[in-house]
Amino acid sequence: MLSSGQLELKDIGSARSPHVEERNGSLDPDLSDDVKAGFTVNDQRDMQRMGKKQELRRNFRMASTIGFTTCVMGTWEILLTSNTPGLTAGGRPALFWSLVWAYCGQFFIVLSMAEMSSMAPTAGGQYHWVSEFAPRAYQKFLSYASGWLSTISWQSIVALDAYLAGTIVQGLISLNDDGYTPARWQGTLLVFAAAIGMSLFNIFGAKHLPLAEGIFVTCHFFAFIPVIVTLLVLAPKAKAEDVFTGFTDYGSGWPSVSWTVMVGQVSCMFVVLGSDSVAHMSEEIENASVIVPKSMIWAFLLNIPFAFGLLLTYLFCMPDVQSALDSPTGFPFIHVFREAVNNTAGATILVVIVLVLIVMITISSLASASRQTFAFARDNGLPFSNWLGEVNPRLHIPVNSIIVTCLFSMAMSLINIGSTVAFNAMLSLSTTALMATYLISIGCIIARRISCNPPLPPSRWTLGRFGMPVNILAMVYASWSFFWSFWPNAYDVNAENFNWASVLFVGLMGISTIVFFGGGSSYTYYRKPDTINEPASELEGYLELEEETLRHIEGKVYVVGAKEYRLNRLVGESMNVSYNQRRAVFWATRASDSLEAIIKFFIEQHPILATVDIRRRIFRRLGRTAIEAEIKALEAGEDVKGLPHILERCSDVQGPEFEYPAIATPRREWPISENTNVIQQLGREIWWIYGQSRDT
Fold first, then answer.
1. pLDDT at 296
2. Which of 307-321, 592-606, 654-668 has the highest mean pLDDT?
3. Kind of pairing between the strands at 596-603 and 581-590
4. What domains, with CATH codes, occur in the chain?
5. pLDDT band at residue 596, thresholds of 50, 70 and 90?
6. Residue 646: phi, psi to the nearest 5?
7. Which pTM was predicted?
8. How do beta strands 618-619 and 596-603 pair?
9. What is the dihedral of CA 565, 569, 571, 574, to 10 degrees?
10. Do residues 434 and 488 touch, judged by C-beta distance below 8 A?
11. pLDDT higher than 70, residue 226
12. How far is CA 501 from CA 126, 412, 635, in A?
């Protein structure tokens, strides 16, 4: 209960936002001891705000989370094993320059996803973010479409990784047996074995997955050394002009080099994907709203030097591009290894190293894909959602979603029996679907930034003033990638070289549309307009403030350092579920000299102590008239719900020394002390004081 005496504040440090402070409190007593492990009060706040129940064990920390994301991306390993489309369409320079602009463009997408993951750290990822940010009229359908797209993309990524693991084994056989003639059905059976084996690891080794990820990331970095050193020391080297400017078409048939390069860039687009994998593990990560965005960015940056180091070495050490593409093993990199070491045994060792890494990547990808599928099924977004959304009570993992992910990989590999385009279809489908989820989610957050109605949810990791330009650049690159992902590999299209991703994409999205209109009303993650303002549930042990009125503290004293302010009149009080906050605005006077002030409290579902910001304001673009109207309303004692809206429009308010502390805007905070920074506002001296109250 709020005290009837003085209200006091203390400084909790300038590194925290008054909107999203660190919490001390009690966890839900209904959670099992296994689930409580690693589950912080901040995590519980996020889960309750999003309406989710904690069912998974949070056993990932910062190091293991970065390792997981790094391994899922597996940039240099995937680049080494899946570069055939890029080499065919443009040769060495096409592959190099495609990677350059793919990294530049994808970086803006990663930054955008990092901020969204801090606002809503949930296994649902993109479809949940769309549900948070989309205009209410389109919220349900856009979120549903994003859920299907995300499911398709991650299922395709796992299928592609499993396909690589199985067919590399077939390539090894071909390398060691000159009389062996690879059969596509044999490759498919090897993919089956890979998918089943890695699914079993995800089911029975889930508890040890963080430890495994530590081992995986160690191998990811240290296995790089023998591969690179061997090639640099033993392989003959190509000329620099062949690597950087010698664009050559090796069979795509497009009429110009520019068209050829654009079509071939999908290989590098795919290589830099995967950063959002950690978002789908959010419900298994301690302190997710901080660790998830940081892990996304660190994993992305850590992979850059390894990707370019591998690619440059690989391209310079490739003796002849056409010979590599024509290799009977089916993989150009195996041909390069064989030519470099000039003996089968040495090449086999190098290939086995890469194979083991691909297996590790597939294990990590399967974990991420199954969690995304589980999350979407939990919200009734998929057929048989009740079964797919189950969590095994003993293992605390979505076993059924893992099984379905395995079956999908096996089904996709069946394409290989009838056609050689299975690899290209999976690569293009995963790239197309994932780019579509980026387009929708980032487009929705741009719309929310423009409208500020309601403001963006709070986040503990933010892009600040750079949010809008970063989001726009991310949209541009995602649109570019989405467009080119549908193009066929060859100019003269036939059944063998057609890009079947377009057919699969349209077909799967058609199925999702039918399911939506046939049973989409059961899709649960959608805040209907008539419930958007209902109070959120309380954290265990805290006061239910929706029953509380703040009018009884009118006339009480509010202490800031050595200054005292009398709370003369409550002029605005509201509840905002998006922030999980109560808001209260008081018209006050300073006891020492009768200086008038507006004091605004943010009360986040329980009256805890937070911070007070006292800072200068410069109102831009709103104009004098709008502010003056609010001041007059305050003086008249009217309910001024418009005032908080004006003050929270981060694009409209900025100070010369301090940024406004709105969501997604960086700020510096003054210590709570004697301050004389009073500004002239409409000819009157006014302090804008922002704080939070507590039970004293």
1. 92
2. 307-321
3. antiparallel
4. 58-369+376-520 (1.20.1740.10), 543-607+684-695 (2.30.30)
5. low
6. -65, -45
7. 0.70
8. unpaired
9. 80
10. no
11. yes
12. 21, 12, 63
